[in-house]
Amino acid sequence: MDSKRRPNPLFLPAAGLFLLLFVLPMAGLVVESLRTYVPGRIGSAEGAPFTAANYAELVKPSFAVFFFQTLRLSLAAALVGVFCALPLAHWTARKLSPRWRTLAIGFFVTLMFLSVLVRTYALELTFGAVGPLGPALRAIGISTNSRGYIEILVAAGLLHYIIPMSTLTLLATFQNVDPRLTDAAQVLGAPAWKAHLTITLPLCIRGILAAFLFGFTFSISAFVIPMILGKGRVLFISNLIYTRFSEIANYPSGAAISVVLFVLAMLLVYVMTHLVNKRWAQ
Amino acid sequence: MTPRRADDIIRFLCKLMNCAIVLFLLTPIIVTTLMAFDARDYLGPLPPPALSFRWFTAFFSDSYFLKGLAISLKLAACSVAISLTAGIATAYATDQTTFRGKDALIAFFLSPLVVPPVVTGFALLLFLSKIGVIDGFARLLCGHIIITIPYTIRATLAALSGIDRSYTEAALILGATKRRAFWDVTFPLARTGIISGAIFAFAISMDDVAVSIMLTDAKTYTLPIALISSMRANFDLSIAAASVMLMAMTVLLIVILEKLIGLNRAIGQGVFR
Predict the structure, then answer these.
(1) Most buried pick, A63, A110, B90, B173, via CB within 10 A?
(2) CA Rg, chain A, in Å?
(3) How far, in Å, CA of B155 to CA of B91, rounded?
(4) Largest CA distance in chain A
């Protein structure tokens, strides 16, 4: 075949779409984030003076608290998610017959694909204040309107996606570990837990880290889950961007928050692809 | 404590944890399904005393939801058609040749996958207002193209790279034009991969909230947006009925994917299984 060196021009339609719908909007976002905000105006004025005030404002406690909240809940959800997925993935990979394994994989894939709206609605309906479990929860002394419970509910929403996703990631990881290694350790007298802790876990560390980082990235950009389950009391960075747009129409501030969230997500993806893959590539 | 005893305890704890997790994952789905068939007109304790289809009827007689559903389907069809065409062309162009920066170009084409959707939506909102696109459907279409196109590119690339180059070369040696070799040999071989990409893209478009909520207007809204705004207004069980139908759609798509590419082959494939 000819023209091996030059890209085929057929990629140009997609490149055009990306330029128009992705590159230019993202560049516009950065420019907007540096514009001065004029209250009462929708969007910044053409040629409004440049300022760093939109970013400076984000380190104030009233804003920083949302960033802190997002990071805290995301970190907790990603850690708990990986911790829960470990035994589940091991059980699916090693203890189930092929037929049941296929069924289990189908179950996890379906849960992963489940519409985020269905997921949040189902969780709110089951564990929320108006749901059928509400009276039972109140009977054992849990207030469904307390801040702590709402935070747990948001984390549960994130976990309902993170657990199936991490389980599938770790499933593939476990299947690449030779079970004869732990068998050998046990034959030589090590208890099973010690064999797993010193052999299986170190061999799977890449998969575990990947699952954790994926869960964390998913969580910090979550939008619908905190919006519905947080009931306006637990807000994530994404929700903050939306309220900047929908409630006070402060576009420059919304743009600045977007840029920060974008940089945060890119950093995590960079860590995920470079550090995790390169470090353990061999 | 003997090592064996410790193992037994840990094994038991792991089993207990697995059961608790599966219960946590399943309970909301079962509760929602039960509630959707609830015959009462208020939210009462489980189990419902009688079952009925009243909430499904309520969903289908609500013009607000129906309009959202119609727009969602139209939007998904249009955005999948556009991103599939552009995606196949891109994947074909990059798969065929090697050039400097090819990996970077592919990474760039897949990058919308890792940008938080709210950021994509907000950037598009600013940009489209600035260049004066005010038609609601056009705005939504722009958003949905950019979130679906990485899926079609990725699936087509994977399908094309799995094809033995010698089939296409054989067709070319036998005198077929490059176009004919593509449509008669390469495309049929890549078809299942391309279809699975289209299914992914369709599901993503039907499910999106974060991008759509930025680009929607009072008259043009998708089904998820309609559901989310009525979810915040009141806790109507016709949303449970809609959820059951969306779940059924998810299961259907998974079954199609399983038949097409085989979930076990795509995911549960390790060296030591």
Answers:
(1) B90
(2) 23
(3) 9
(4) 75
Question: Searching chain A, which residue's CA lies closest to the CA of residue B35?
Answer: A125
pLDDT, position B48: 75
What the block records as the tokens of A157 is: 């929403």
Contacts with B31 from chain A: Cβ below 8 Å = 122, 125-126, 131-133
User: Do A29 and B7 count as a contact with CB atoms less than 8 A apart?
Assistant: no
Shortest CA distance from A24: residue in chain B: B127
Q: Quote the pLDDT of residue A260.
A: 92
Does A235 have pLDDT greater than 50? yes
For tokens 């085989």, what's the residue? B262
Nearest to B222 by CA among B203, B209, B239: B209
When scoring A1, A2, A20, A22 by the number of chain B Cβ atoms within 10 A, the one with the most, hence best to mutate, is A22
User: Structural domains in chain A?
Assistant: 62-279 (1.10.3720.10)
Write down the H helix ranges in A146-231: 147-175, 179-187, 192-195, 201-203, 205-220, 224-229
Classify domain B63-266 by CATH number.
1.10.3720.10
Could you report the per-residue pLDDT of B146-184, keeping only the tens digit for each?
999 999 998 898 888 888 888 888 998 998 888 888 888
Tokens of A125: 């309906």
Residue B247 near chain A (CB below 8 Å): yes
Distance (Å, rounded) from C-alpha B23 to C-alpha A231?
Answer: 25
Q: Is residue A120 a contact partner of residue A157, using CB atoms and an 8 Å limit?
A: yes
Hey, where are the domains in chain B?
1-52, 63-266
Selection from A18, A25, A23 nearest residue B82 by Cα: A18
pLDDT tens for B245-260 read 999 988 898 888 888 7
What is the radius of gyration, based on Cα positions, of chain B? 24
Size of interface A-B (CB pairs under 8 A): 280
pTM listed for this prediction: 0.87
Contact between A118 and B243 using a beta-carbon 8 Å cutoff: yes
Report the C-alpha gap between B87 and B84 in whole angstroms: 5
What is chain B written as a DSSP string?
Answer: --HHHHHHHHHHHHHHHHHHHHHHHHHHHHHHHHHHTB-SSS--PSSPSSB-SHHHHHHHT-HHHHHHHHHHHHHHHHHHHHHHHHHHHHHHHHHH---TTHHHHHHHHHGGGTS-HHHHHHHHHHHHHHHT---HHHHHHHHHHHHHHHHHHHHHHHHHHTS-HHHHHHHHHTT--HHHHIIIIIHHHHHHHHHHHHHHHHHHHHH--TTHHHH--SS---HHHHHHHHHHH---THHHHHHHHHHHHHHHHHHHHHHHT-HHHHTS--S--
pLDDT block averages, 10 residues each, chain B of length 273:
77 91 92 84 71 85 90 95 93 81 85 91 91 89 94 89 85 88 87 87 92 90 90 79 90 85 57 45
Q: For residue B206, list chain A residues with Cβ-Cβ distance below 8 A.
A: 115
Q: Which two tokens stand for residue A271?
A: 């860590």
